[in-house]
Specification:
Elements: E1 4-8, E2 23-27, H1 30-36, E3 43-46, E4 61-63, H2 72-82, E5 87-91, H3 98-113, E6 118-121, E7 125-130, E8 133-138, E9 143-149, E10 153-160, E11 166-172, E12 187-192, E13 197-203
Parallel strand pairs: 1-2, 1-5, 2-3, 3-4
Antiparallel strand pairs: 6-7, 7-13, 8-12, 9-13, 10-11, 10-12
Length: 204
């Protein structure tokens, strides 16, 4: 049964481990990153505006037009959802252009709104996106913890193990009340009753 898919995006490089995933998709420059860590992807997608090297002949490749509505990463995530993967994580997702960062946050929301689970990883930040569930995040020295509503509202939001607690709170996407929290215990537990919640762990 297909469960976990890893998408290697083309943002700033960060180390990653693909061993716990059932399928790996490399997006454009993500193929270069895959080779760097010795991972052979199962699929390659991109318009190849950032990767100019040779492509393998023994791996399926979708070459996208540069004039398109979707980013390479969004296309890869949509492909994974359409092919039955319920958990889709993205690495090398940030760094560089702000517009691509925003696009990736919207892509994370798309995964959740279509029934999946997702985490996006960068060099200095990790983004968790979920709904109607909870996550536990280990304490990380030198990092902050923030929560944001991606939908208009997120209801019944809880934060435990943090300096600033939330207890059944309602968050809205027009007021960043959840910015810059910190751990007071070894683990923080964050839950969301409804709506799409974004949790950001970022280096201070």
């Amino acid at each position: 049964m297909k469960k976990k898919c890893l998408v290697v995006s083309g943002g700033e490089y960060c180390d990653f481990d693909s061993t716990s995933y059932d399928f790996v998709i490399a997006c454009d420059k993500g193929y270069e990153y895959s080779k760097k860590v010795g991972v052979m992807p199962n699929f390659i997608i991109g318009d190849f505006d950032s990767y100019k090297g040779e492509l393998p002949s023994d791996i399926p490749i979708i070459k996208l037009n540069t004039d398109k509505d979707e980013t390479d990463t969004f296309y890869a995530v949509k492909y994974a959802l359409e092919n039955g993967f319920s958990e889709i994580d993205v690495v090398c997702a940030f760094g560089g252009r702000l517009d691509h960062c925003i696009a990736n946050i919207q892509t994370a929301s798309y995964v959740v709104e279509h029934g999946g689970k997702t985490t996006f990883y960068g060099k200095d930040e990790t983004l968790y996106c979920f709904s109607k569930s909870s996550i536990i995040i280990p304490k990380k020295e030198g990092y902050s913890l923030s929560v944001f509503a991606l939908t208009d509202s997120c209801f019944n939001v809880w934060e435990k193990g943090t300096k600033y607690l939330l207890e059944g709170a309602t968050l809205i996407n027009k007021f960043p009340i959840g910015i810059s929290n910190e751990w007071v215990e070894d683990f923080a537990e964050i839950s969301c009753g409804s709506g799409v919640l974004l949790v950001v762990v970022s280096k201070i």
